[in-house]
Amino acid sequence: MTTDRIHVAGSDIAFPFEPGETVLDAAERAGFSMPYSCRKGVCSSCKGGLVAGDVITGRASRLSGRHEDVLYCIARPQGTVEIAPKWIVSSKAPDRRRFTTHVHRIERPAKDVTILHLRLPIGRRMPFRAGQYARVFLDEGSSRNYSLANPPHDNDMAVLHVRRVPGGRFSDRLIGTIETGGTLDIELPYGLFSLSEDDGVPAVMLATGTGFSPLCAMIEDLIRRRSGRPVHLFWGGRTLDDLYALDRVRRWAQRHAWFRFTPVLSRPHPEWSDAAAHVQQAAIARYPDLRGHEVYACGNPDMVEDARALMTASAGLAEDNFYADPFVPAGDPVPPP
Ligand SMILES: Cc1cc2nc3c(=O)[nH]c(=O)nc-3n(C[C@H](O)[C@H](O)[C@H](O)COP(=O)(O)OP(=O)(O)OC[C@H]3O[C@@H](n4cnc5c(N)ncnc54)[C@H](O)[C@@H]3O)c2cc1C
Ligand code: FES
Predict the structure, then answer these.
(1) pTM of structure
(2) Does 5-90 carry CATH code 3.40.50.720?
(3) Using omega within 30 degrees of 0 as the cis cutoff, is the peptide bond preceding 189 cis?
(4) Do the Cβ atoms of 259 and 221 come closer than 8 Å?
């Protein structure tokens, strides 16, 4: 531990850091929450200012003095620094655990989608919020993020929906070697993507492909809690095959009056009467005025950015009411120098 500290500009917040620790890790360890998503320097969610001092952000990238766009998830202070995050609030230090899980079941509901049902060691449970994700370890130093598709009451397991990225180390190559009865190391929970606590606010949910996974956890959580919160899910894919849990979602819509579902295909399909569209276009056509709503978007990063811009600019959605987890292609983080 050094005597150097991270100071937050315009506040009396200051906390220590370990040598080589990132600003984000040090803040969490000290009991503060700051914005983040991927934690690998790709999505920009954690971006904030450097007011004074030095940080290293990559193998050889040193920033000194004033900088606007510093990624705190990869920025390692070199001595006392002053930062200006978008927001920082006092919170409990996150309780995360690493487990060697047991591969209980493997499903392949579509050509490019694998669903892994992982069991935590017998007797172990791990509390999490619907919408959060797990980190899957490929080997020491290499990991991938996958949203938890199971609702929080099923917290003795982790269900992951993995879409194949051609050539991808985990989703294409390693996943083919995983067998029922095998093991996989994961750490959870991570992420700030979760439903707000106000069950009275109608939620519009947008997903592309396996972006459905965290929304599936949220909707099953609402069902289990008998919440009755109005939810309209727009789930998009290029082809019908991409909507790999269509029957299950249609069943939710039949059983629960508060839940509405619109499947959206971006390519024309002979059995599909609706015009080809993207989820954000379909949602805005149905909800041209989103004042008083919350939007939850997950999956393709381009969809997430387009939806955010469209809905806040032309449908009156408050910026703070747009919640998202873009599935940025974050491989391995840049190692510390
Ligand atoms: C917070 C978070 C949650 C996520 N949750 C999920 C989830 O629930 N389900 C899921 O399927 N994925 C999810 N992802 C994406 C996932 O973490 C991996 O990035 C993805 O599975 C690719 O890993 P890989 O090892 O197969 O590919 P890599 O070996 O990392 O990548 C191989 C090559 O493919 C490129 N690439 C990787 N992903 C894409 C992509 N989507 N589009 C185009 N090129 C790409 C890379 O840039 C690289 O060149 C999530 C990502 C984040 C940040
Ligand atoms: S959380 Fe830092 S770039 Fe994604």
Answers:
(1) 0.94
(2) no
(3) yes
(4) no
